[in-house]
Write a structure and sequence with these properties.
By secondary structure, the chain is mainly α. It is about 40% helix and about 5% strand. It folds into two domains: about 1-40, no CATH class; about 50-145, no CATH class. A two-stranded parallel sheet has the order 1-2.
């Protein structure tokens, strides 16, 4: 925990090891961390791959990408950041809710468009198509038909 004390002001700790984080959130906060996130459930700011992986894979598949690179993952991260409920944003809430219905479609769209922009897509799709197709398949009107 000494390493956290040596960091500049308001350090952010991302302890992503599974099943147990490298440092427990309460220990990191006690050592001076402003924000702590973990890879597994059971802690504040859990970052489960269920928020990102489905959208990343859908975006890659829809454009038939040949590569997954850093810029595509950065696009996914930005898409996730965009769906965080700003009214609830704070040190203990930096991720979207696990049941956020916007996460997968937005991440898929962002990753697919990043693959196209970088020249790693073998199928170009218009902006919005990946989002709309995934939204319809997940939440379209047929889901509520009785």
């Amino acid at each position: 925990m000494e390493f956290i004390k040596r960091m500049s002001g308001d350090p952010v700790i991302l302890a992503m090891a599974l099943p147990d984080p490298e440092i427990l959130p309460e220990e990191a906060i006690a050592a001076g961390a402003a924000i702590v996130a973990t890879g597994g459930p059971g802690f504040q700011n859990a970052m489960p791959n269920t928020l990102s992986s489905p959208g990343i894979m859908r975006g890659l598949l829809d454009v038939r990408a040949t590569v997954l690179n850093h810029n595509m993952l950065l696009a996914a991260a930005r898409a996730l950041a965009d769906v965080v409920d700003r009214r609830r944003l704070g040190p203990g809430k930096i991720m979207p809710d696990i049941f956020c219905d916007e996460a997968a479609p937005r991440v898929a769209e962002a990753v697919g468009q990043a693959a196209i922009a970088e020249g790693f897509a073998t199928r170009a799709v218009p902006k919005g198509e990946i989002y709309n197709n995934l939204w319809q398949s997940l939440y379209g009107e047929q889901i509520m038909r009785f």
